[in-house]
Amino acid sequence: MILALAVALPIVAGALLPAFRFEKARRDLYMMTSAVLASTLTFYALIADQPAINIISLNHFLDITLKLDDLGKVFAGIIALLWPVSLLYATDYMKGHGKQTSFFSFFLMSYGVTLGIAMSGNLLTLYVFYEIMSLSTLPLVMHGGSAKSIKAGLKYLYYSLGGSAFAFIGLVYLVYYGGTTEFVPGGLFQGVSLTHSAQLRLGYVLCFLGFSVKAAVFPVHGWLPEAAVAPTPVTALLHAVAVVKSGVFAILRVTYFSFGVTMLRDSYAQYVPLALSAFTIVYGCTMALKEKHLKRRLAYSTISNLSYIIFGAMLLTPHGLAAGLMHLVFHALMKITLFLITGVLNERAHIYDVGEMRGIGRQLPLLAALFTLGSLAMTGLPPLIGFISKWYLAGAAAQVGGTLPILGIVALLISALLTGIYLMVPAVTMYTRPSKLAAWQPVETNFSVLLAGLSALILALSLYSAPLLNFLNNTARGAV
Amino acid sequence: MEGLLLLIAILLPAVGSLLVMFLPWVNENRNNRCIFVGAVMVLECIVVLLVALSGEQTLVLFEMTKDLPIALRSDGTSRVFSAVMALMWTISGFYSFGYMKHEQNEKSYYAFYLMTLASLIALTLSGTMVTMYLFFEMMTFISMPMVLHSRSKEAVAAGIKYLIYSVAGATMGLLGIFMLTPNISSTFFVAGGSLMTDQLTLPLAAMQAVILITLIGFGTKAGMFPMHGWLPTAHPVAPSPASAVLSGVITKAGVLCIFRMIFYVVGPDFIRGTWVQWTLLACATITVFMGSMLALREKQIKKRLAYSSVSQVSYVLCGVFILDTMALEGAFLQIVFHALTKDALFLCAGAIILKAGISRVDEMQNLGKRMPWTMWMFTICAISLVGIPPLGGFIAKWHIAEGALTSGTQVFSWLVPTVLLVSAMLTAGYLLPPSVSAFFGGMAQTESPAIREDAKDPGLLMLVPIGILTLAIIILGAFPSIMIENFDNVINTLLKGAL
Amino acid sequence: MTLVHNFPFFSILLCMAAGIFTSVFKARVSKILTLMVVGTVLVLSALTLRLTLQLEDAYPFIMGHFPAPWGNEIRIGRLEALMATGFSAVMFISLIAGFRHAESFVSEQKFNLYCIMVDLALAAVLVLIFTNDLFTVYVFIEIMTIASCALVVVRQNGHTLVAITRYMIMHLFGSGLLLMGIAMLYGITGHLLMVPLKEAVQQIVETGNHLGPLTVVIALITAGLAIKSAMFPFHGWAPDTYAFAPPVSAAILSGIISKAYIFVLIKFFYRVIGLEVIISQQITQFLFVCGVAGMIIGSIMAISQRDIRRMIAYSSVAQIGYIYMGLGIGTRAGVEAALFQMLVHAAVKSLLFLSTYELINVSGDRKRFHYLHGAGYRNVPAGIVFTLAAMSMVGIPFTGGFIVKLNLAISGIAIGGWVRVMVLLALALSTLLNSVYFLHTVVSIYRKPAEDHIYPETPKMPAYAGVTLFVSMLLVVYLGIGSEPILRVIETGLKTFS
User: Contact at 8 Å (CB) between C239 and C304?
Assistant: First the structure.
């Protein structure tokens, strides 16, 4: 019941928002209340295990069910934490932009949809929410209304729906061979003699390719850099946390809970995803280096980092999965902080390019310091959280051994180096050259407090992350 | 509590640095600041010496995760390195009180100076690979502002180059740490190495390649070929006292990391006689030669000294890579003497640039008449650097050469001494002529027109530190046995399996 | 034999009688009469469906007092009743929502003729659904062709005249092929009633006599019906015809009438020839390839269209391709999926045509996408309905289109081999292509219009039209969520179909 409420509340609240015609203050209150309520429900469900709930049955083997197991808790926890934060940020950010009602309406609805993905009890439910997410986030991407926004939105849509179409193939395979789309730890085919493993592997690879569109794996990553044209709350939350991590989450579910590790291990069904993700790790960073526009640079960085998670998961060991989950959590925090800072730089100081960041360390000290912190974390400077997840990823890969995992480690390191260059060098220039910044609008306290809070969380986790890591390790063990 | 001294050794300069930045009493008044910084550094030397004398202690700072402790341990190597570094740092610090009167932004300079010292000491005291990596990276970032100090275009470009090279080197080092962690039996450093050679997770060739990459990565800080490119631009562009410590001290941090990886993690036997050792020796030898050649062609004083550092530090690395007792003794000696010598040379150069207004070696004719003390000390240090007995530099180089000859390193057993000899000649070629021309004026018998009117020896605050260094070179050169004994204690624990 | 048993017969009679009576009434009365008739047919069919669900098997019904082969016999089973209910529901909704537009095309005096054609079309559809002999099939196919022609050409402009000429040529050619096939079949078997035909065909297959002619018969009849139902590559007449017809006519033609031809084809396969024979003659392979090709090429052509109505017309070609792909899979599951798609598509396509017309209406009667920007705000219900229909076309979950995709995919995967691969890939590709043109249009209708476009004021859509569209939208969603019972009916109905 709680699960259904948590998912439905933001969707309904968002859908009803246009009907209310609030003015700004009331509307902000309404939205924040809905979001915080949904988050509270989710956090409650994290602590007190909830029973699964069947919403509706499409036919005798297909039903929409919500269930929150450990893996879902990881994702749901992140979403529930970061959505109200982003919403608070957005209320100040979108001041002065048009069509705010429809924007916030879809923003809230997407929250519920994402929670639905996290709480899906079977692949059909996940697929349904996944498709709906493509549609509910589309207006957010196109919000600007300019020709560029619309083009970016359409590209996002085609990619997403094309990806879902291929993921659908995987769904059909599961239904046909497994009889159900339930998520079962270890997969549906454990212990069953596998005369059809060749067919199933093909189905899996197609499914992987389908879901990897949202997870921005090369070569289906093309929509993400263009989507950077959306307003920053959208880019930060959706394209660094919700949408892209949903793609990754779907891959994790399909690999560990549907098809199962045993069938995939040591076959091309494992090698192809490993190779693609390893390549994407390096590709994303290289493109980030070439990119001068700050948001696009961060978008490419996201592309690279998502493949860290996929790479870890595709090692098909508990350590690999645990490491991937660590990075899922840590990257979400770090990237959202960096994006939110960028948003403030865009809107209040009109800084869009990396070159324009020179010398602002003196004028905007807090933002510069937080940006530096985030960059150091992303680069992987110990003891910050970025290092911890990279360490475990490399450790898991080293444990597995073999050419592809080792290549993956090399890719990780190259990526760390490139990240250092494309993030730390701008960070350093913030403190050195004379500034080109002529004037800027004051930064609201809300922003500063939010960003400082997120950074404090990053620091806290850097120093004390043992309980979280324990939980993730247990989750991973339970999944194999 | 055990390890408290270690903690103090790190925190003292760190806290001092923060106080310099934020405490008004200190950062308003220049005199106060100098006294404060000086006091901190002297205290630090005392603490470090106490650490050196009090035997091995361990302290776990905190645990990043269950099996990733950040821990300190003061074993033989750390005591040697930390003592050298703290002393050098203090002496250069006192010199800078006189020098930096003429530069801006002193407050941030001293703050970063002290903070770099803190991270350096922490690096020497690191007890595990990850701790070492942590402080290695931290040191890069903290020392960068010193390079960037003048905020000029060259300084910023040099700083960024330094950053990129260092991060690249650290990344290469990290590869090794990743790959070695599942293969070693102890997270902490173990004298003689703790590699479980019979159950490696990688094939042998791959493991060797990884170790090679790691060592080359850490060698970035030491300016070893092929990762030397940043050094000649970064060292000169910093203020002279900073150049001194960058060249003299921070390069040794790179050496330390290599040292730790070979002798405390992998174990010298694993790479002895393999292509890894040959490659490393080749790189070090090339660097020795190349550094001296490039120094010869360079006319700018500070750049010439920077290239010289590239060459001289690789002497140390040659000694290390030969992997036998004599060579290691030579390496340690070279560490000490090069630190002393290069420090002193840079400080002299600073004085020359500041007081005489010249920056090129061909403008130094008859400078000796105006600045006798400076030039005398410059000459003594130059002679030591070339390796002429009885000064310290000679002993170091002799040990390395003899170690090479008696070791079983085939080609390198004669190549290394040959290169050392050639390099010695080149060093003479690039250091002695300026000295000679300073005293005997070359052809012209008149002063170089570039020298300022009011050129004279600098004040005591700058002269005395140089003097101390020079004196140490002379004395330690005459009586090296105490040092050698100490070094032997350490070396024997490291090579116990081998000979 | 209760009253309900007679309902199908009553429905047919009612439609034909209404047609006759309408010829004397004026516009207004004929409109109401037609609506009432269609509504009544809907109710009657629903009740028939309820009856058949209670019965074990299909039952034959003798029209008049003479048994077959002298009298005419129709056969009523679950599947037929379901189809009849579905089609009459779609027609009813289309008429309510769209009739008022017909007034702008047809003059007052001629309006009753239009209504007659509607009645005739419905009657023909019902007959084709229930009939049990080939002669009736042919006769009413001809009637349906002519009625459809009239439905289109009632709007007299250059476009429709050209389109209808092409339509007539191809359809009459198709009918000709059909007639030749029926004649030949009569020649080799001596029967026109479907039940004895089946025995005769079995005998032919067993003995091997006349096997060649049998193959030719099957080919001719299949080709004829394929042409008439716009299967690729015989679809040439469809885009223009659907695009330029009045919206109600387009809805009826593409939604219902084309399906009736396919239903006849299925009946022919099951009740006359027998599925095994069809498969062995590799007819199904041919249908499969054409179906897949239609799916892909229809969508590709749709992407390049500038006029929204032609885009929807091409999408019809693609959707018919789905049906033929299902048939071509050659298993019972495939045919079930195809039948379900027939129902879904009927509902969705009529919705599409009607809502599109409303959107065009509020955009100054312009059909290019350019001018449709912002139409979703000018007519909110039509926009929502169009969006939902588009989503069903793409196959978003909770719409009927998703269940269609699912069933087609499962039946495809069950058969294995290259057919499986082609089915899955074709479905995936088709989804992507559909989303390109449909969702692009959805985005367009919600975009801000360009400043220089001025849209004249149009009268608001009356409430009943909006409500009807809304209700039909719920039907599509119901097909997405509660499809299970309907699929059961199709499955059991198909078992008793032959």
Answer: no
For residue A329 the two structure tokens come to 């959590």
Q: Is the pLDDT of residue B499 over 50?
A: no
- Same domain membership, residue C253 and residue C286: no
Cβ within 8 Å, pair B181-A398: yes
| Same domain membership, residue A14 and residue A47 | yes
Average pLDDT over residues A469-475: 86
List chain A residues with CB under 8 Å of B137.
381-382
pLDDT in tens, C183-213: 999 988 888 888 888 888 888 888 887 788 8
Same domain membership, residue A185 and residue A326: no
Burial of B211 (0-12, 13-18, 19+ CB in 10 A): buried
Are C202 and C314 within one domain? no
Number of domains in chain C: 2
* Domain span holding position A106: 1-264
Pair (C436, C344) in one structural domain:
yes
Count of structural domains within chain A: 2
Q: Which residues pair with B65 in a beta bridge?
A: B68
Check whether B496 has a pLDDT greater than 70: no
CB-based contacts of A364, cutoff 8 Å, min separation 6: A345, A349, A440, A443
Q: How many CB atoms lie within 10 A of CB A328?
A: 25
Q: In chain B, which residues touch A (CB < 8 A)? A: 62-66, 68, 70, 130, 133-134, 137-138, 141, 144, 148, 151, 156, 159-160, 163-164, 167-168, 171-172, 174-175, 178-179, 181-182, 201-202, 206
Q: Which domain holds residue C196?
A: 1-275
The nearest alpha carbon in chain B to A421 belongs to: B164
Given a contact cutoff of 8 angstroms between Cβ atoms, the answer to whether C484 and C421 are in contact is: no
Question: Among C240, C275, C310, where does a domain finish?
Answer: C275
Spatial distance between the Cα atoms of A393 and A385, rounded to a whole number of angstroms: 13
Shared domain check, A393 and A363: yes
- Same domain flag for A120 and A176: yes
HSE-CB of A233 using CA atoms within 13 angstroms: 29
Cβ distance A429 to B156 less than 8 Å, yes or no, reads yes
Q: Rounded CA gap, A217 and B341, in Å?
A: 55
- Whether B498 shows a pLDDT value over 50: the answer reads no
**Is the Cβ pair A169, C409 closer than 8 Å?**
yes
Nearest CA to B253 out of B365, B143, B156, B367 is that of: B143
H/E stretch holding B279 reads: helix B275-297
Condensed to tens digits (0 to 9), the pLDDT of residues A391-440 reads 889 888 888 878 888 888 889 989 988 998 899 888 888 887 677 777 77
Q: Determine the residue of chain C that is closest to A160 in CA distance.
A: C432
Token pair 């091997």: residue: C208
**pTM confidence score:** 0.84
Where b means 16+ CB within 10 Å and e means fewer, A133-167 reads: bbbbbbbbbbbbeeeebbebbbbbbbbbbbbbbbb
Token pair 């396509």 in the structure block, residue: C349
Does one domain contain both C264 and C358? no
A192 and A308 assigned to the same domain: no
ipTM of the complex: 0.85
